[in-house]
Amino acid sequence: MSERNTLLTYSEDPEVASELQSVAAEVCKGMNLSCLAVTINAPADDIDRLSKVARDEVVSVTVAGQQYITPEVSFEVLKRISDSRRPRLLLIGSTRDGKELAGMLSSYLDCGVATDCIAVSSELNQITVRRATFGGRVTATAALLGDCAVVAVRPHAYRPPVTQSTAKVIHQEFQDIPVKVLVEKISQKAPSTVDLTKADRIVSVGRGLKKKEDLVLIQQLADALSASVGCSRPLSADLGWLPEESHIGLTGVQVKPKLYVAIGISGQLQHIAGMKDSGVVVAINTDKSAPIFQNCDYGIVGDMYQVVPELTRQLQQLKAKR
Amino acid sequence: MQPNIVVLLKHIYDENQLKVDQQTGEVSFQGVPGKLGTFDRNSLETALRIKQKLGGSVITLTVGPQEAERSIREGLAMGADKAVLVKVPNLLELSANTVANMMVDQLKEMQPWHILITSEGGADTYTSVLPSIIAQKLNLPLLGFLRSIEVLEDGTVKGERSTEKGIMAISAKLPVVVSVVSEINEPRIPTLLQIMASTKKEIRTVAPSFEAQADRYFKTLSLSAKSKERKRIIFDGTVQEVVSKLIDSLVGEGVLS
Lengths: 322, 257
Hints:
The complex is a heterodimer.
Chain A lengths: L5 E5 L3 H15 L5 E7 L3 H8 L5 E7 L7 H15 L1 E7 L2 H14 L2 E12 L2 E8 L4 E7 L4 E5 L14 E7 L7 E7 L12 E5 L9 H11 L2 E4 L1 H6 L20 E5 L5 H7 L4 E6 L12 E4 L2 H18 L1
Parallel strand pairs in A: 1-2, 1-4, 2-3, 3-9, 4-8, 5-8, 11-12, 11-13, 13-14, 14-15
Antiparallel strand pairs in A: 5-6, 6-7
Chain B lengths: L3 E5 L2 E3 L5 E2 L6 E2 L5 E3 L3 H15 L2 E8 L4 H10 L3 E6 L8 H14 L5 E5 L10 H9 L3 E10 L4 E8 L2 E8 L2 E5 L11 H7 L4 E4 L11 E7 L8 E2 L4 H15 L4
Parallel strand pairs in B: 1-6, 1-8, 6-7, 7-13, 8-12, 9-12
Antiparallel strand pairs in B: 2-5, 3-4, 9-10, 10-11
Helix pairs in contact in B: 2-5, 3-4
């Protein structure tokens, strides 16, 4: 058998697919691998953009008869490419689709897998990853053993490469992909307009908010601070008061603004995991024993319905004076 | 259709009670209490609701140490009929791949079952790969990250899959592997009577199908919980005063626009 000297990258999200090229570059510092960026049923624009950041080749796969590329379809494609290219490493975007794909690939290839990785490196022919565990409180560094590995990288943990390249684009067509799961209906979200990962200031709100209409108080404060609005998981996932992209936490986005204002957020580990790298942290909460006060620089114990409007008012005053 | 349902349960260290050396950030598990994985309650609740509607059975499967019995009992108190514990002493040193391999061997012995339900991820390691590894190994359809589920009389399972891109209505024929997100339900809290009754239910302890002294896929090199030291200044006074003090501090930090 030939030596494994290929690196495959794939994400269904074109932005994440570009970010994976930076991860590939990092890994290639310690390993001499030929890099293949795979796309499946991607629009020509996306393929073109990827070819400008990909290192060696882009394999543009067309799968006939599939309206939506589910993990079982992308698995079948990457499985077939892996059979012929024998990859040393597969880098996948750690979205929900991507995590399932990563699990299936590692099962098929009988190799190790790590998901939600925030850093990937290689040394002495070994792949090392960093990822958050225990509700985000602990950072684990781990080695993937064996001669093949699947690593799913957290979206936006890396930026796309800035250097331009001109990777060769190869087109491939796959047929007869077996499907066990039927997709009956898709309600796709409108493309996200908020990117909290790039925000300088964030006002974030949690269960202390009594009703959706009161979000206006939070928005007014955010406007006075020139900040973006985020939230803890219950507000987006359970209540649906804010879009999923606003959810800051272990299973949402991880942010590092200069200023983070947590309002009515108790500060469970899973939320702290999403904001612990922030500069200055302010907490406003009625419960003085809430864990958020252990994780803040400045705290106000009080009712957000009194504190927030007052804070907005004084900030507006300050702005008017300047 | 009276489905036999298997639910994966994990006994984990309570992440809120980990011991951390503030200087080095080193993590210690000595004396840290264990608990039932937070999200596993949602998977078990999903199974119990299906059983309430259609009948059948709910068996839990755990890979873990003897102490895991505590969490398994909680599952039995919630309403699971029986439990299987694949006993391994060193769960923390085992990769998801190794644990999945052990589970697959056990799941083959537990056949016939129709639905395997897992959570969206272990509340400790949160790898989220067990369901997809198991589905691939058993060549079964995977209905992943469901926020709703319905089992139809004709053996079709329908659900709403929730991903970053939106919601998707998907379906497959039994037997299936399912993972559920925590928004799917509010898990029940067992009554005292149910807790007492659970002690009479059976936990079958079995040895793993293979020895895994050293994991061949994955090796944890270090665990660090070094966190940024925060100032933790709590302001005193009237609303007007505390807000004014806060703004002064924020101006001093140079973080206002």
